[in-house]
């Protein structure tokens, strides 16, 4: 498809990407000269841009390939990584974001400095920078480039070998992403993410629709019938011990992994810290949670469709989505799809680049200058840091090709070195007043050593799922901090100092919408279970009973909220 229509594909792709770039430039010109303007979009992001940027920052080519491949090879159990994230967005909107905005924090380490001390700030920055610079940024570039090459046969398209094509793709994606992050700051990232996010939603809906039409030999309805009735076990999201994501992990480590990612990970929360108000931030975060509930339909059902079309005979499960795209995507949409795919890839890249530069400038360079650096100096250093980090990632990313298996294993587990201690320190720091900085330091050192031993020394002896290990480490580390808070408390209780720069009035519909979002998560698991579509006998009476109960509970809650708001409204 792509090779025979190369000119049409490239021209249309360049057109769509150029349109995104032009809109981003129009939205950001003249607004990135100050510190808040560059790092936090002038603290003026609306809910639309927050939701759009959160969506595309989180979803990339790796998810398109990986989630569909998991659905093709196993079932829908891996949807847990996406769907349960909605619960973490609720925690972010209602618990964490009000406190972050009240303190006007620009980075998470800045909050840790306020709550504990400068050493905890430095330790957290080291963990983040090592994770971003050595693993996360290069792996995003590498995995995104591999996805583009799989879907669009880049070596054949360019007439060069595989590795030169990989280097070319890495540099091309990296350069495009770098332009947004270096010259436009967070606002350019958020604007481009939102526009590309709209494209991703269009593609996400279009691909399963076209796939179902192909499955039904031209009939969308027949395709749905085959999807539901043939191999219903593929539609089961309740994973067992042999599945990629056992169901029990949802209630242990998965919870804490998502809390870290959505509530404490700098490159994700940075766009929420730039919200125009608490209400706008809450809207954006909760809206992104509803998008996460749609992910199984957009990024896993196509994998199930591929299983029905091709059977289990594909050489690798990661070939399922590329094969389906090549077979069902019309030629005239190829350029648009390529633009959206590239947008998803460099969205994650430029978000990471922007956040890494933010951490370096505000938590390393700024404190080193003892607050004497002007806004112009900080922005200039941020651009230089972004260039250095980008160039470094261009070198490291292609090298993953030569040691793929070992490094992919490290990449998969590396986040575990800093996600759990970060969320432990933040939660204990927010909800206690006497726990000392010593507790945070001991937890960071303890976790790095303990997790390293579990993953690389005792990995064969201890077969407990790594997500369950997360939960155990979380409990142990919370206990360490609380014991130190009891035995060696701070001399004076920590007192939060309000420093709000935006309106902190909560969105009046935040709580009822959060309840509805949580209900959607529950309904999704009921739908993709043995009392739902996975039974092979259609939806059971128990499913309908539980569904109606949840709908009724939501109606009652919303009616009560509306009545309460009516009483509170001025006459």
Structure write-up:
This protein is mostly helical and 571 residues long. The protein is 74% helix and 0% strand. It has 24 helices and no strands. The protein has helices spanning 6-28, 35-40, 47-58, 61-73, 80-83, 85-102, 108-115, 118-152, 154-158, 162-215, 220-229, 253-263, 266-273, 278-299, 301-310, 320-328, 334-368, 375-399, 404-414, 419-431, 437-456, 466-487, 510-527, 541-568. Helix 3 runs parallel beside helix 14, helix 4 crosses helix 15 and helix 20 runs antiparallel to helix 21 (437-456). It is globular and about 70 Å long. The N and C termini lie far apart (64 Å).
Shape: globular
The major sheet is characterized as:
none
Q: For the CA atoms, what is the radius of gyration?
A: 24 Å
Give the N-to-C terminal Cα separation. Answer: 64 Å
- One letter per element, helices H and strands E, the order comes to HHHHHHHHHHHHHHHHHHHHHHHH
Total count of helical runs of at least 4 residues: 24
Number of strands: 0
Beta-strand residue percentage: under 5%
Report helical residue fraction.
over 70%
Residue ranges: pLDDT <50 for 5 or more in a row?
A: none
Mean pLDDT: 85
């Amino acid at each position: 498809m792509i090779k025979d229509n190369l000119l049409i594909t490239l021209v249309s792709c360049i057109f769509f990407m150029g349109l995104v770039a032009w809109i981003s430039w129009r939205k950001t010109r003249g607004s990135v000269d100050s510190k808040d303007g560059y790092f936090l979009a002038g603290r003026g992001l609306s809910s639309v841009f927050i939701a759009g940027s959160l969506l595309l920052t989180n979803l990339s080519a790796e998810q398109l390939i990986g989630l569909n491949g998991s659905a093709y090879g196993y079932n829908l159990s891996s949807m847990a990584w996406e769907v349960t994230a909605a619960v973490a967005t609720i925690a972010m909107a209602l618990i964490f974001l009000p406190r972050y905005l009240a303190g006007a924090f620009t980075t998470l380490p800045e909050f840790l400095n306020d709550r504990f001390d400068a050493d905890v700030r430095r330790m957290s920055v080291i963990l983040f920078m090592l994770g971003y610079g050595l693993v996360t940024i290069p792996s995003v570039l590498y995995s995104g480039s591999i996805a583009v090459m799989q879907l669009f046969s880049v070596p054949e398209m360019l007439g060069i070998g595989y590795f030169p094509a990989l280097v070319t793709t890495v540099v091309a994606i990296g350069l495009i992403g770098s332009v947004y992050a270096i010259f436009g700051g967070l606002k350019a990232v958020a604007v481009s993410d939102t526009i590309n996010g709209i494209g991703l939603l269009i593609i996400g809906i279009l691909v399963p629709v076209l796939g179902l039409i192909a499955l039904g030999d031209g009939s969308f309805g027949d395709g749905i019938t085959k999807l539901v009735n043939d191999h219903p076990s593929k539609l089961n999201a309740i994973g067992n011990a042999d599945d990629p994501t056992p169901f029990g992990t949802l209630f242990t480590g998965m919870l804490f992994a998502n809390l870290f990612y959505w509530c404490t990970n700098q490159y994700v929360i940075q766009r929420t810290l730039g919200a125009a108000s608490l209400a706008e931030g809450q809207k954006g975060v909760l809206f992104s949670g509803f998008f996460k509930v749609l992910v199984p339909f957009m990024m896993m059902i196509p994998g199930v469709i591929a299983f029905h079309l091709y059977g289990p005979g594909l050489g690798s499960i990661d070939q399922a989505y590329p094969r389906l795209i090549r077979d069902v995507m019309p030629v005239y949409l190829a350029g648009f799809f390529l633009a959206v795919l590239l947008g998803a890839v460099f969205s994650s890249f430029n978000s990471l680049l922007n956040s890494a530069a933010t951490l370096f400038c505000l938590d390393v360079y700024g404190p080193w200058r003892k607050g004497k650096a002007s806004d112009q100096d900080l922005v200039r250093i941020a651009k230089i840091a972004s260039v250095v980090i980008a160039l470094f990632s261009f070198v490291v990313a292609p090298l993953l090709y030569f040691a793929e298996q070992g490094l992919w294993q490290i990449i998969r587990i590396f986040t575990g070195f800093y996600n759990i201690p970060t969320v432990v320190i933040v939660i204990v720091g927010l909800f206690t007043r006497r726990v000392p900085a010593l507790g945070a330091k001991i937890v960071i050192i303890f976790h790095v050593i303990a997790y390293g031993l579990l993953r690389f020394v005792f990995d064969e002896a201890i077969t407990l799922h790594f997500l369950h290990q997360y939960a155990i480490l979380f409990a142990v580390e919370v206990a360490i901090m609380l014991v130190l808070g009891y035995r060696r408390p701070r001399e004076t209780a920590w007192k939060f100092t309000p420093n709000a720069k935006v309106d902190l009035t909560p969105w009046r519909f935040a709580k009822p919408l959060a309840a509805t979002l949580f209900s959607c998560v529950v309904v999704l698991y009921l739908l993709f279970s043995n009392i739902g579509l996975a039974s092979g006998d259609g939806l059971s009476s128990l499913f309908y009973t539980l569904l109606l109960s949840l709908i009724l509970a939501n109606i009652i809650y919303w009616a009560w909220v509306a009545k309460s708001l009516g009483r509170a409204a001025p006459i």
